[in-house]
Each structure stands twice: as C-alpha cells, then as structure tokens.
Design brief:
The chain is mainly α. 60% of the residues lie in helices and 0% in strands. The chain has 5 helices and no strands. The longest helix has 14 residues. The protein is globular, with a radius of gyration of 12 Å. The protein starts with 6 loop residues before the first helix and ends with a helix.
C-alpha cells in the first residue's frame, strides 16, 4: 500500500525536483545531498519532501532558505508548487 500524501506535499516536492534539475543545461544541477547541506538537513528529508511523504513538508524556515538557495521569491516558489496541483 502506498503512503498517503497531501497535495501540498506533492506540490512542493515537484517544485523542488524542478528547481534541482532545471531543463536548461546552462544552470547547474543540484543533488539532494547538495541541497541538504545548503539547508542544514539530511538528504533523506529532502527525499521525503520530494516524494510527498505524509507528514513531511518544508517548514516556513526551510521554504525561506529554499528561496535563498534558488534565488527566487517565495511567491514564485508557491506558484511553481501550485502548478503541480492540477497534475
């Protein structure tokens, strides 16, 4: 049986995958381990966020750090996460 996920978890997970692995080759790609180091968390937690595991969602503090790491505004991160809601 698959773990229960919420739409918000899935959305931020999809957003993180898109940000870590940009479609253009001009931007550097980031591993889960690289991102974990930047945020001061384990790569396992990044994996759980990306998979949308129940009970795992980036905290407000982590969302702010993600914006800094990827040089984006919080609204842009939220918009990217919302794009996954309809998928």
């Amino acid at each position: 049986m698959r773990p229960v996920t919420t739409e918000r978890n899935k959305d931020y997970g999809r957003a993180l995958r898109i940000l870590r692995w940009p479609s253009t080759t001009t931007k550097a790609r980031m591993t889960q381990g690289d991102l974990a180091k930047e945020l001061g968390v384990s790569h396992t937690l990044i994996c759980k966020w990306e998979q949308g595991r129940a009970g795992y969602r980036p905290s407000e503090e982590h969302l702010k750090k993600l914006c800094k790491v990827f040089h984006i505004k919080r609204k842009d991160l939220d918009d990217l996460a919302e794009q996954g809601a309809g998928k």
